[in-house]
Design brief:
This protein is an alpha+beta fold and 438 residues long. The protein is 49% helix and 16% strand. It has 15 helices and twelve strands. A six-stranded mixed barrel has the order 3-4-9-6-8-7. Helix 1 crosses helix 2. The two termini are 26 Å apart.
Length: 438
């Protein structure tokens, strides 16, 4: 019977093209608006590294002599002197110190290639294994190279394409500022969303253009204030780089990978003991309060997905409800116009359940068409959003397969849910009263 009902649905759509088109457009517009905002919010809030996010923690230390914020939150950075102590620990499976600089990059031999000012991520050797970065060529640097402050680099795929035409550049050299650096690796496409390891306000921007050892930054005294969040609760003695390193300024992001509860407890004891030692030396005078913030909790605490984004989803959902209510009134009008047909079918033996099945199939077809058209509207909305918010990562504006399937399913379910009343009302028509008018 269902193929027959499907045929009846197509006939009904052809008989009332304008009314059917209005119903489809109402569903499509509501679905398109809802899925545009939901896609962006979903891509923002998804787990960026699901296979190990439960084992990644950001280290936050209260090294201040004053209360920070509400007393419960801590800066997401630590000082350089604390980072150095934490890097000496062998408790974590991996630990990573992260900062950033901006430098002029140029090709050594190709004088026709215009130099660029690029964002450079400075970090330690565990970065690439801890965050599972894919490599196109080569690999990250060794721990020893990191300790020796070697002038080496890992390039992003885009930077390698610009500098070396996308070729295997491992072993080749380039200029970073006035110094020569050697390429040890080239990343493959790697765009985690959100970019959880960095500052919250850069969570939806692309990763930096190249990576160099953290100690190399220190050796060459490189610092870019605008690329790091530098909280100095106590000013350095002077403006020299050495004073910055020994100061209470917090500008280093520190992540650890702790694969078990036992290791987590050991590391918590380690950082608390570090605070006690520093307290005896005159630091950490406020309190002993250190946190290992899980990755997912960090994203929540730092409001990586803003309340405005969540509110936009709810507003779009309300707009969908309004569209579906208007669509429901059109359904009532459509089914009322078919009262004679319903009465005739009931008179020749069709049950109330048969009428419900017939109109449910018809609304499913309307919902499916509306969902497919809604996908097109959502795509247009995402393209418009990408052009308007060009500073955001382009992958935020892409619907994956589950979202595409979910859009059509949502359209069908919504049309059936809001069509339930019109369908039941149509099925309750009495054959005798309708046949008299035929």
């Amino acid at each position: 019977m269902y193929p027959y009902y499907f045929k009846l649905a197509l006939i009904s759509l052809r008989k009332t093209p304008l009314l059917s088109l209005l119903m489809v457009m109402m569903i499509a517009i509501g679905i398109g608006a809802t899925m545009t905002t939901y896609t962006v919010s979903y891509m923002m809030s998804k787990d960026p590294i699901p296979n190990k996010s439960a084992h990644l923690f950001q280290v936050q230390l209260d090294s201040m002599d004053e209360i920070y914020g509400d007393g419960k939150t801590l800066p997401t950075m630590i000082s350089y002197q604390d980072a150095q102590t934490l890097l000496d620990s062998d408790i974590p499976k991996h630990h990573v110190a992260i900062a950033a600089i901006q430098q002029r990059v140029s090709h050594e031999a190709n004088i026709h290639l215009t130099p660029k000012s690029l964002k450079v991520r400075t970090t330690t050797s565990d970065f690439f294994s801890m965050f599972e970065t894919p490599f196109l060529y080569g690999s990250g640097w060794s721990k020893q190279d990191g300790k020796d402050a070697a002038q080496i680099a890992v390039l992003s795929k885009e930077t390698n394409s610009w500098l070396f035409n996308g070729e295997n550049s491992v072993g080749k050299t380039f200029k970073l500022g006035a110094d020569t650096y050697r390429v040890v690796g080239v990343l493959d496409s790697w765009d985690p969303l959100p970019k959880y390891y960095a500052l919250p306000h850069t969570a939806f921007t692309k990763p930096h253009d190249l990576f160099i050892p953290f100690n190399t930054q220190i050796k060459n005294e490189l610092f870019s204030q605008k690329l790091v969040s530098n909280y100095c609760w106590k000013k350095p003695d002077d403006e020299s780089f050495s004073s910055l390193l020994t100061s209470e300024c917090m500008w280093v992001i520190f992540w650890v990978e702790l694969p078990s509860k036992k290791i987590h407890q050991q590391y918590q004891s380690f950082i608390d003991n570090h605070a006690l030692v520093q307290q005896s030396l005159g630091r950490f005078q406020n309190r002993i309060y250190n946190k290992l913030v899980p990755l997912k909790q960090y994203l929540i605490d730092e409001e990586v997905v803003s309340d405005d984004s969540k509110m936009a989803v709810w507003l779009a959902a309300l707009f969908l409800v309004v569209c579906l209510l208007n669509c429901m009134s059109l359904m009532i009008a459509k089914f009322h116009a078919k009262a004679g047909e319903v009465g005739l079918r009931r008179a020749i033996g069709a049950s109330q359940q048969d009428i419900i099945k017939q109109f449910s199939i018809e609304l499913s077809v309307v919902g499916a068409i509306g969902g497919l058209l809604g996908l097109l509207f959502a795509k247009i909305g995402l393209i418009s959003a990408a052009n308007t918010y060009s500073y955001l990562h382009s992958d935020l504006m892409q619907m994956n397969a589950p979202l595409i399937i979910g859009t059509v399913v949502l359209a069908v379910i919504s049309s059936l849910a809001f069509g339930l009343y019109p369908i039941i009302r149509a099925s309750q028509m009495q054959p005798s009263s309708q046949l008299k008018s035929l």
